[in-house]
């Protein structure tokens, strides 16, 4: 993979959420610089809603975007994005980077639900999402990757997702796809020719006493309990719309593991 080009744009955004003492959630930090913009939107109940808006296209080759989100004890935050993100070739070439660093304190809850990331032909992007949760924290995190726009080949896309609970790894997996990726990324053992791939990570303390059973509730969809109070839903689909429908239906399919055949903790 190519190196990061220093001619690219550097952009940062940071969200800090805390309980306001009145049953709601305050946002003492809501800062963004460069082509990333954060906007608080109308929420409901105790949950604060924030939208990530791209003030310009990208990331392009050589760009480095960083987003940080911290949720304090008993705070509730929901983060989305206004539109899909396009990974584009840069004028000066080189690899683009996008880092997302998330922390959630005990009793806090975060729903991280961005729109899809689309890898455009000729682009090269490395994404790393790193999540640290304290015991008792709750998380719903969705990641959707679309490999190429309609009728075109994808760019090179490497996406790594790391989730830790109480400092212990629950999930650490990487997908490397597109030109120059290891052979087999598009084969039957990985994507099977599909061009949309996604995952939903759900962390809930209730899973400790009520673990979810592994399941394959639909073609292209799989539910896998993880080590710790967490569940991973993985899906592949021919397009972004079908992928979203699969991921949206997954939580309704969670069934408790049978005491006779307890769910085996797994790490992908």
From TrEMBL:
One Pfam family recorded for the sequence: UreD
Keywords associated with the record: Chaperone, Cytoplasm, Nickel insertion
Subcellular location per the Swiss-Prot or TrEMBL entry: Cytoplasm
Coiled-coil region: none
Subunit-level organization: UreD, UreF and UreG form a complex that acts as a GTP-hydrolysis-dependent molecular chaperone, activating the urease apoprotein by helping to assemble the nickel containing metallocenter of UreC. The UreE protein probably delivers the nickel.
HAMAP family: UreD (MF_01384)
Protein name: Urease accessory protein UreD
Species this protein is from: Streptomyces griseorubens
